[in-house]
Amino acid sequence: MIDPIKVSNVSVSYDGNEVVTDVSFSFGPGKLIGVLGPNGAGKSTLMKAMLGLIRKDSGDVRFGTKKIDEMRKRIAYVPQRSNIDWNFPIIVKDTVLIGTYPKTGLLRRPKKADKEWALECLKLVGMEEFANRQIGELSGGQQQRVFLARALAQKADYFFLDEPFVGIDVSSEEVIINILRKLKNEGKIVFVVHHDLSKVKTYFDELVLINKVLISAGPVSTVFQSNNMSKAYERQLTLESLEVSM
C-alpha cells in the first residue's frame, strides 16, 4: 500500500536566511506532481528537506504515519545533473545496479537476478546498448535516462526528481515523461522539480507552486492560473504567456 505524503509547516533556512517558510500540502497515490517556482524559490530545498537530505528548521513530513527514516528503502531520488560527479569512473550498468543496494544491502554481492533486473531497467529507458560505457561519456539526456533507470531499479513507491528535463534532448525527455506517467498509473507518487511552464498542463496532475512560501497546491486546473503564477513569479502573467516556455 502506498500511503499519502503529508508536508506540514516545513521551514528551512541557510545562514539565518529563510529559504522555505511554513509550507504545507498533501498528495495521495497515483499522482504526478510538479514543483514550480522561479529561480531561488526554494524548490530543490523543499525536496531535499522532504527527503531528510538537509535539516529543517521546523515542520514535519509523513508518509502515511511514518517518517522519512522508516521509508528510505521505498524512496528513489534523482538529483540535479549539475550535482553529480560525471568523472567518477563507473560504467552504466554498475550505476544502475547501485539502485538495487537499498533493498539488498551495500555489503552483499549482487546476485544474478539483481544484475538482470538492472539490465531490464536499462532497457526500459532505451539504454541497454550503452551498458558497458563510462557514465561520463554519455550525453546529458543519456545520463539522465541512466539515473532514472537506477531509480527504477530500487522498485520504489515514491520518486523524487530534481529538474530531470534540464539540458537534455527531446527524445530523452519523451522517454522520461512516459516512464513517469507509467509509474503514476501504477499508483506511485512522483514529485518533479520543474521549470518549463509550457509543459505543465501536459505533464502533471497536481502542482506545488512556491516562492519561499507556498502560493498554491492542488490540481493543475486550480493552481496553474494567471493570478497564482503572477504572484509566484512577481510579474504579470497571462494564461497565454504561461503556455510559452520560460
Query: Roughly how much helix do the residues carry, as a percent range?
Result: 25-40%
The CATH homologous superfamily is named: P-loop containing nucleotide triphosphate hydrolases
**Arrangement of strands in the largest sheet:** 5-6-7-3-8-9
- Share of residues in strands: 15-25%
CATH architectural category: 3-Layer(aba) Sandwich
Radius of gyration: 18 Å
CATH level-3 fold name: Rossmann fold
Characteristic terms for this protein:
246 residues; Rossmann fold; alpha/beta; 9 strands; six-stranded mixed beta sheet; globular; three-stranded antiparallel beta sheet
Describe the structure.
The protein is of the alpha/beta class and 246 residues long. The protein has a single domain, classed as P-loop containing nucleotide triphosphate hydrolases (Rossmann fold, 3-Layer(aba) Sandwich). It is built from ten helices and nine strands. The strands form two sheets. A six-stranded mixed beta sheet has the order 5-6-7-3-8-9, with helices on both faces. A three-stranded antiparallel beta sheet has the order 2-1-4, with helices on one face. A hairpin with a 2-residue loop joins strand 1 and strand 2. Helix 4 packs across helix 5. It starts with a strand and ends with a helix. The model has no long low-confidence stretch (mean pLDDT 91).
